[in-house]
Amino acid sequence: MAERKAMIDREHDLSITKQAEILKISRGSVYYLPRPVTSADLEIMRRLDRLHLEYPFAGSRMLRGLLALQGCKIGRRHVKTLMRRMGIEALYRRPRTTKPEPGHKIYPYLLRGIAIRRPNQVWAMDITYIPMARGFVYLAVVLDWATRRVLAWRLSVTMEAAFCVETLEDALARHGKPEIFNTDQGSQFTGAAFAGLLASQGIAISMDGQRGLAGQCLRRTVVAQHQIRGGVSAGL
Prior knowledge:
alpha/beta; 5 strands; Nucleotidyltransferase, domain 5; five-stranded mixed sheet
């Protein structure tokens, strides 16, 4: 994070907003001071990240066991705390437990039984976590389901709605618009700013039934993470 903030030159002729846009980071993150993460926790988070990508179905209990096999002794509660901070959870079907944000509209899932075969038929968006040398960031990605092409992406140190809206605006400006846009039910996507932007463009909104189970969208996001992680890590 310190390296990323150092890239912002407050004396430059370009405004801070413009510099943040060029760096593909949320404007709010420039002023945000995250809570420090200990070096020990950062190392555990890196291990959790690798294990989660290899065993996406693993919950906190299994991850604790896998860490123990690596010689890392940690309590399950600590594992759950770090998983929440990283924004990861096990991918498996279970009864719906997600509570929508009060006042936010939840849209129906529109993709059941639909063959997705052409570009701009369906776009999807999700958020994932990327470990960095001195911390971590959240990655928001817009993907075309038919081609698996990354249409737009943004980084943020918080899971705020603003950087999701900015990512969507970037994708629309560069690639036109899809017929259907699919997300999970996270508050970043159910809020008026995000859903309103889609509605104003005449785009049908589709939402998975549970946060964290975005199905193919989430798996494509993991693919996108691998595609751009090298560039992100090098650039930051």
